[in-house]
UniProtKB/TrEMBL annotation:
Amino-acid positions noted as binding uracil in the UniProt annotation, renumbered to this chain: 194, 199-201
Gene name per UniProt: upp
Domain of life: Bacteria
Associated pathway: Pyrimidine metabolism; UMP biosynthesis via salvage pathway; UMP from uracil: step 1/1
Note on how the cofactor is bound: Binds 1 Mg(2+) ion per subunit. The magnesium is bound as Mg-PRPP.
Catalytic reactions on record: UMP + diphosphate = 5-phospho-alpha-D-ribose 1-diphosphate + uracil
InterPro entries referenced in this protein's UniProt entry, alphabetically: PRTase-like (IPR029057), PRTase_dom (IPR000836), Upp_B (IPR034332), UPRT (IPR005765), UPRTase/APRTase (IPR050054)
Protein known as: Uracil phosphoribosyltransferase
Domain Phosphoribosyltransferase, residue spans: 6-208
Similarity remark: Belongs to the UPRTase family.
Length: 209
């Protein structure tokens, strides 16, 4: 699967260990998700296009690079995707943020859409869809269907923990989407939770149960 990238950066792996730990409380969980999102954003923006401009340094004239090309958009899948937005905005403060609200029906595990609001120039932006968890893959596939229906063309998906089942479902449904994962876990359990995973990402981020 050439468009699937798993990060092995030691800082990401270190922070992810504490994100997984059941003894990590809400405040620290939130801070760590934020930090990992920043580190992942740094890695996935390596291929951004540059353009040379002329500036004046205190010593004299210089030609130097700035970011060019498509503008960025961040699309968190509500709720848990919200936890990754600030970390990405740290590096890309001018990015627009759109939202796709989905929840997973606890019986069927199928995603149910309840909210969509996107930047109006979504077709012209490079979009990063974010959600900490890729489990059955249903939510990611549905969120990407939803934004493609509204014109999105250039899409990357970024998550913290993925199950192999979800990666397969996502890459089959959207072979054009690059998928970035901090850790590929073993499997899903009978309730559709990732093993060993980190539990319910939304509940851990927002302190709900
Ligand atoms: C979680 C998670 C993903 C989804 C992943 O959201 O944040 O969106 O489950 O599961 P899937 O790959 O099987 O679709 P949840 O439905 O619990 O909603 P929440 O973020 O509002 O808690
Ligand atoms: N959603 C979560 O929050 N955690 C999982 O393990 C699976 C889906």
């Amino acid at each position: 699967m050439s468009n699937v990238h798993v990060f092995d950066h030691p800082l990401i792996q270190h922070k992810l260990t504490y994100i997984r730990d059941v003894n990590t409380g809400t405040k620290e969980f939130r801070e760590l998700v934020d930090e990992v999102a920043t580190l992942m954003a740094y890695e996935i923006t390596r291929d951004l296009q540059l353009q040379e401009i002329e500036i004046e340094t205190p010593i004299g004239p210089a030609k130097s690079n700035v970011i060019a090309g498509k503008k960025l958009g961040i699309i968190p899948i509500l709720r848990a995707g919200l936890g990754m937005v600030e970390g990405i905005l740290e590096l890309i403060p001018a990015a627009r943020v759109g939202h796709v609200g989905l929840y997973r029906d606890p019986e069927t595990l199928k995603p149910v859409e309840y909210y969509v609001k996107l930047p109006n120039d979504v077709a012209e932006r490079r979009l990063i869809v974010v959600d900490p968890m890729l489990a059955t893959g249903g939510s990611a596939v549905e969120a990407i269907n939803s934004i493609k229906k509204r014109g999105a063309k250039n899409i990357t998906f970024m998550c913290l923990v993925a199950a192999p089942e979800g990666v397969e479902v996502l890459t089959e449904a959207h072979p054009d989407v690059d998928v970035y994962i901090a850790a590929m876990d073993e499997k899903l359990n009978e309730d559709g939770y990732i093993v060993p995973g980190l539990g319910d990402a939304g509940d851990r981020l927002f302190g709900t149960k």
